[in-house]
Amino acid sequence: MKFFIDTADVAEIRDLAATGLVDGITTNPSLVAKTGRDFIEVLSEICEIVPGPISAEVAAVETEAMLAEGRRLASVAGNVVVKVPLTPDGLKACRALSDEGIGVNVTLCFSAAQAILAAKAGATYISPFVGRLDDIASDGLALISDIVEIYECYPDFTTEVLVASVRHPMHVVDAAKLGAHVATVPPNVLRAMFKHPLTDRGLEAFLADWAKTGQSIVGDGEPAALSPAAEERRRA
Ligand code: G3P
User: Fold this and answer.
1) Does CATH place domain 2-194 in 3.40.50.150?
2) Catalytic site residue 212?
3) How is the chain split into domains, by residue range?
4) How far is C-alpha 213 from the geometric centre of its chain's CA atoms?
5) Nearest Cα residue to atom 9 of ligand 1
6) Distances (CA, A) of 220 to 38, 210, 214, 223
7) Is the CB–ligand 1 distance for residue 55 below 6 Å?
8) What is the pTM for the complete model shown?
9) Is the CB of 159 within 6 Å of ligand 1?
């Protein structure tokens, strides 16, 4: 499963990219507005920090204007993926941009019917919003299950399911169980995925017991030479 971070906050992206677990970034107009910064500037910075796909959303609603904006966004960096809303104009723009070799993330998906249209329009990613469905007592994960099941029936559908509007780690776990390709998570959700009280407690106990031995693994601090097998693995 690929992890994208759902934010335009450059400081957060830098911090989380250091975990080595970040495969891409998704932004949207609200997340960009929250930064209070110039969109193109922020996008360019993000594309330099994370080499993976960076989703940047158009603000236009008519196809021709979406195409102009999409081409502009794609010109910022080679890893930009253009985000368009799941509307008739958005899918026309998706088809055209995709045919030009520009990656497209079709966003604001709330039904399996919409997801079928996005795949037929050549979307690189479809973004079903699980959290916003759950927020209105509708089953967001059921939508993911339907989309994955439908897409698996058609080998010519190359669109990846990018689970969006993630509210907590269990959205990620349940989406992974369903075989979704990508989860885009807010920074706090990725951080929450690391946490378990038993891990904290167990580590504390290990360290306390180790301290009692009075030993040091690295001894005088000289880096230990790798074993031949480890050296072999390092070179591979
Ligand atoms: O950025 C797309 C999506 O993840 C945003 O969802 O519900 O957190 O605004 P939401």
Assistant:
1) no
2) no
3) 2-194
4) 44
5) 165
6) 51, 17, 14, 9
7) no
8) 0.92
9) no
